[in-house]
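Email to the structure team, subject: L-2-hydroxyglutarate dehydrogenase, mitochondrial model.

Hi all, the expression group asked for a predicted structure before they design truncation constructs. Nothing fancy, just the tokens so they can compare against earlier work. One-line instruction: predict L-2-hydroxyglutarate dehydrogenase, mitochondrial, return tokens.
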Amino acid sequence: PLTPACVRIKSSALTSSFDVAVIGGGIVGLASARELILRHPNLTFTLLEKEKELSLHQTGHNSGVIHSGIYYTPGSLKAQLCVRGAMLTYQYCQKKGVPYKKCGKLIVAVEREEIPRLKALYQRGQVNNVQDLRLIDAKAIREKEPYCRGIMALDSPNTGIVDWQLVALTYGKDFQEAGGTVITDFEASDIKVAAESAAGSAEGLKYPIIIKSSQGKEVRCRFVLTCGGLYSDRLSEISGCSSEPRIVPFRGDYLVLKPEKNYLIRGNIYPVPNPRFPFLGFHFTPRMDGSVWLGPNAVLAFKREGYKLFDFDTQDFINAVSYRGLQKLVMKNIVYGMGEIYRGVFTSAQVKNLQKFIPELSPSDVLRGPSGVRAQALDAEGNLVDDFVFDGGKGELGSRILHVRNAPSPAASSSLAIAEMIADELEKRFQL
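Reply from the structure team: attached below.
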């Protein structure tokens, strides 16, 4: 079977001038680079990634769900891109031999007062054109998930699971096979317009943008697309564009079912979401490797790539806590936030939440699992930015850059649809 280890991406940099440079080797950057080169095979493209390998951060640390597009506000980019993206993902995986499972998902109401919200979700899914959704009763829940207890559920058979890192690396392979250049170990630390020099004037005119790495390497290009995930605000700032929305990192810790208890779960089981928090709450997620993840919680991370409890970065920490938007968010949600921290520390408190759905689950059935860090965009008023945000800037530099400022979940599920939209946008802005 295809695994991330099978998909080899070699870093190469024989030339250092390109028509378009894509910064960020996560799933959105790779999907976009792939789409662009397939549309414009006559142009030269490079993808720059700061790590030694691709897709190590949000893409390599998520729950692996192919979302169907139920939750998102009708008409929003999330709703449009997720429904189309999920369909494109299934087609792509089928064509490329990337393993996936359409194991379905139940969004389960365990209290009477959740039923109106569940019915509203069903309506929303219908408006968003999610296929084959249905509301089912307690008996039908047990037929699908014998150990799950609930009074009503929304059944989404088109939700699936996949290894998103493998999908992203396969995009990268397509990009390279189409003639794209991948350069790893290249952390973009400065983006500026070339100063004209008599000797290099032709080069300067043709490739006016210089991207400098923290080790002093340089790449020149005509246009830049940044897909920086956890660093999207910083990439915008170093190119002289807006610092808003700011990225605040939230860590999510998962629990893992002990293998002998995997029989308890067949497909994805989710709670009815709390309308005040876009984090979708604790859920049960089967994985492609046969394991089952439970969680995650959501707590402030003190480092942008801080996957461990005590990971700390002074700049990231000061950046986050001095930001007025975060201070306002904390004040509005202090009780909820303390609860998340408590559940993160005490496994039994997390399990108590999960027992509402699977009463047979006990604290001794779970182990601490992996963690992920999500790039949560926040505005100055303390509002979580919920939709995709794309922007550029002004002047010679700003007019040659498109920043993907916020690509929240379901960005992986939507990646091929996001790539189409980004390619359309670049064609329009830069007359490619």
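The mean pLDDT is 91. The first strand starts at residue 17 and ends at 23. Ping us if the truncation boundaries need rechecking.
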